[in-house]
Each structure stands twice: as C-alpha cells, then as structure tokens.
Fold this sequence. Notes:
The strands form 5 sheets. A 10-stranded mixed β-sheet has the order 9-7-5-2-10-1-11-15-19-20, with helices on both faces. The protein is globular. The protein is built from 12 helices and 20 strands. The longest helix has 19 residues, at 156-174. Helix 2 packs across helix 7 (182-196), helix 4 packs across helix 5 (133-141) and helix 4 (108-121) runs parallel beside helix 6. Helix content is 31%, strand content 22%. By secondary structure, the chain is α/β, with parallel strands linked by helices. Residues 8, 11-13, 35, 38-41, 126-129, 131, 133-134, 223-225, 228, 237, 239, 273-274, 299 line the site of 6-O-phosphoryl inosine monophosphate (IMO).
Amino acid sequence: MAVDLLLGLQWGDEGKGKIVDVLTKDYGIIARFQGGPNAGHTLEFDGIKHVLRTIPSGIFHKESMNIIGNGVVIDPVVFVKELEGLDKFGIDYKKTLIVSRKAHVILPTHRLLDAASEASKGKAKIGSTLKGIGPTYMDKTGRNGIRIGDLELANWEEKYRSLADKHEAMIKFYDVAIEYDLNELEKEFFEAVKALKELTFIDSEEYLNTAIKNGTTILAEGAQGSLLDIDFGTYPFVTSSNTTAAGACTGLGIAPNKVKEVYGIFKAYTTRVGSGPFPTELFDETGAKMAKIGNEFGAVTGRPRRCGWLDLVALKYAVQVNGVTQLMMMKGDVLSGFDTLKICTQYKYKGETISHLPYNIEPENVTPIYTEVKGWKEDLTGMTEASQLPKALNDYIDFLEKELEVPIKIVSVGPDRTQTIHR
Ligand code: GDP
Ligand code: IMO
Ligand code: MG
C-alpha cells in the first residue's frame, strides 16, 4: 500500500490532531515524522479534550500502530508525562506505540540553550516554544546528537556527559542570565529515560517499508505548518525541521513514489503564534473576535495566537510545495456571524501586484490585496451533512477551490470528532 500525508499549510495549529484522529479508522499505522514537543495536537471526543505532543494522534484507536519516526526529536521528560496522561484512559501504549532508534533525544541542556539563544536575541527572538527543538536539530545536523538507539548502549551516559558539558560551556558564551539546577534536571531526565526504555525501539524505516509491502495503510502526521518549514517558511521565524511533504520521506525513510494522497489542512482564516511576518494579521476588533470565538491560545505555551484573514497567496504556495491532492478546511464555524469576509488573493509588493509568495514578506514590503465576500450567520456546529451548509459558506468554499485548484473534502465545524463534514 501507499503512504498518505497530512500536513498543516499555515503556521501550525490548523487542527491536525483532530483530523488524524478522525481518519485513523482507515489506517493501520499513524506515523509522526518531524518536530517534537513544540507540537500540541488537540483531539476531542466523548466530552474529553486531549493534547498530544510527540505521540501520534492515532493513539486512541486500539487497532492502529503509532510510530515515532527518525525525523522526530524526543524529550524523554515530556514524553513520559504524556504517557502517564494516557494511563487513565486504559491505552495499551506499550503495544501500540513504537519509537525509531534514529530519532534524536532532547537533553535538558538543549532546553537551556534554547532559552539562552532566545534571551540573547532580545526583541528579535523567534518566539520559540523553548522545548529545545532548535538546539537538538543543530546537534543532529552537526553530527553530535544522541539518538534513541544510543540509549541501548552501555556507554551512552559518557556520551551524554560530554555533550551536556559542552552545552554548559555554550550557555556561558551567550552571556545572558539563565537560572538552572542541572542536577535536578538530570535527575528527572534519567528517570524519564528509564521509563522511555520500557517502550519498543525499532528500525522504523525497515518496519514501515515492510508494512507498505504487506499492504498496511499508513498515514504520516505532520507537525507545525508549511510556513514554519526550515527551508520554505518565513525564515528565520520558523522551526528547525522540514514540515513539508519531503520531510515525511526523510523523517520516515519512505521513498517519494510511495506517497499517494497529500491532505493539506488549513483554517478558514489564519493564525500564528510567536514572532515573524504575517501579512493578513488583524490588529482590530475583527481579529480579537476571531481569537475569542476561535479560542486561539497555543496548546503548548498558552500564548495568544495572532489572527487574520485567509491568505491565498501563502496557501497556494503551500499547496504547490507539498503537492496537496485534497484540502481540509477547519474552524469554518468560527467565521459565523461576520457580515463580510476578506480573502487575500494578491500582494502589493514594492509597488507591484504579485500573486506568488516573495522572498521577503515583512510588512514594509507587502500589503495584502483583498477580495470581499458575503459572510454567513448560521451556527454550523450542529451540522453533520454537506447539504446543511449555508449558501454563503458554499460560495466561500467554491471560491477557494477555484483559486487553489484542489477540492476541499472535509469541512470541520467544531473541535469534536463528530463535528466533521465530508464533501
Ligand atoms: P494542531 O496543532 O494542528 O493539531 O491544532 P491545535 O490542536 O494546536 O489547535 C487547533 C484548535 O482548534 C484546538 O483547540 C482544536 O480543538 C480546535 N479545533 C479543531 N477543529 C476545529 C473546528 O472546526 N472548529 C473549532 N471551533 N475548533 C476546532
Ligand atoms: P503544531 O504541531 C504553532 C512556532 C513557535 C515559534 C516557532 C519556532 O501544534 O501545529 P520552536 O519551538 O520550534 O523553536 O518554535 O514555531 N511553533 C508552532 N506554532 N504550532 C506548532 O506546532 C508550533 N511549533 C512551533 O511558536 O514561532
Ligand atoms: Mg498545535
């Protein structure tokens, strides 16, 4: 069988967790391929809300396997807390969750380095979640990292010590005041590593390619979003991994010709958390209204998310870079009650009108050009069929499908599993 990908097309938090949970019944394996505990994927069903960080969003389905691929970075401390959170729901994760030996380990000193780097940047900070993501990927590409498979070796603690010592010297280099007690952090870390080692570690590329041969269906679950991609995002205000489709190949060890559907997921408007340019951002009561109705607070840090109109220039770019074959539009319900809606279709860029995402989208270079469309008043949250959707929403969808040249197959009308309309 082939592998399908599910990717966020904006700046993250599009609703990936919810949709992966909805789709899992059709897949034998759900696999995360990049990112780490900077992700917060929310699932809601039976009146309970779960936020997953490193664990794939298929974990609540007993029949599916969940793989943490080689491209992921794992913080044992966060990961073990996440596992403990599953205990009360009777999830047999020792059976259904397995971890790639080639995934990299986030050390306590990676988190400290993240904090030191951000503090040293002052106003120019990235707005990182401070989970140690950047420093861990730097050690990976610098060929200094510790991998999950190393934890099985007799001498891994020596390797740990020498890397942690090096990190402490680097923290001093930043010349910012970072308070920490490494002994305390290490105590917690080593205990978590012990618990983590009770899970099964595998050569995940072997496992997945065998599964493909055997006809198992696989869904790769992206984290973050295309505009946070290390190559194609709004650099340097990005994360440190490839969040786009190619990242699924390198992050799982699957060949491009094994990928079939690419599900691109986007909010009916746009949000961003952390620093960096955001052309359609709203600073008025309309933005505040979206934030309030959409409950736009980060699932990981609780920070308010910046809100704005849908940006089709950026969305088209993401559809192209990822080769999206099907779209999913989330949070349509949040836009109920706006008289008119704006959709950014082009940018004014250095005096010219352009339709593509330029190198630099800082506010001094880019002004969005909007098309205004009619809004809808109806409450969507109880709707279950496409035939119930109001005309103005169908017109909004038609407009987007024409512009993006990809069908919108799912319209999500609330956070719960059941609030999902298939078209
Ligand atoms: P992810 O990181 O892409 O998994 O998304 P997050 O979980 O960080 O953020 C999405 C938020 O929107 C969560 O609080 C979800 O429960 C919520 N959500 C998802 N889909 C919908 C929807 O269609 N309508 C509304 N109102 N909320 C939704
Ligand atoms: P999910 O998977 C939204 C943002 C941070 C910051 C930048 C770099 O839930 O969609 P990092 O911690 O990676 O060094 O932060 O990226 N960011 C996210 N924003 N959703 C996420 O994940 C994010 N993961 C990182 O806010 O601006
Ligand atoms: Mg999130």
